[in-house]
C-alpha cells in the first residue's frame, strides 16, 4: 500500500487469542510538527459478544516481544 519512501517506520498489527483474525500495518512518518500514523487494519470484530463500540484502540510495543501478555 505504501512505498518505503513514504514512511519512516512500520509496525505489524497482530490480533490476540480472542481476535486472531485482526491484522494489518501502522506506518509512521516524521513531520515538522510530530509523527503522522496511518493504520491499515483488517479483521476488526463486529459489534457482538462484548465488543459493543464502533471504535477500537491498539497499542504498539517499543520492541518486538510476542511472549508478553497485553
Amount of beta strand: 25-35%
Could you spell the SSE succession in H and E letters? EEE
The count of β-strands is 3
Uncertain spans: none
Roughly how much helix do the residues carry, as a percent range? Answer: under 10%
Q: Reading side by side through the largest sheet, how are the strands ordered?
A: 1-2-3
Count of helical segments?
Answer: 0
Report the average pLDDT across residues.
Answer: 77
Broad structural category: mainly beta
How is this structure best described in words?
The chain has no helices and three strands. Strand 2 (23-31) and strand 3 form a beta hairpin. Strands 1-2-3 form a three-stranded antiparallel beta sheet, with no helix packed on it. The protein starts with 8 loop residues before the first strand and ends in a 28-residue tail after the last strand. With 70 residues, the protein is mainly β.
List the keywords.
70 residues, mainly beta, 3-stranded antiparallel sheet, 3 strands, 0% helix, elongated
Q: Can you summarize this structure?
A:
With 70 residues, this protein is mainly β. It contains no helices and 3 strands.
Amino acid at each position: 500500500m505504501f512505498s518505503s519512501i513514504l514512511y519512516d517506520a512500520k509496525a505489524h498489527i497482530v490480533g490476540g487469542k480472542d481476535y486472531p483474525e485482526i491484522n494489518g500495518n501502522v506506518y509512521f512518518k516524521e513531520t515538522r510538527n510530530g509523527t503522522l500514523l496511518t493504520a491499515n487494519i483488517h479483521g476488526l470484530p463486529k459489534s457482538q459478544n462484548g465488543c459493543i463500540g464502533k471504535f477500537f484502540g491498539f497499542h504498539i510495543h517499543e520492541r518486538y516481544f510476542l511472549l508478553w501478555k497485553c
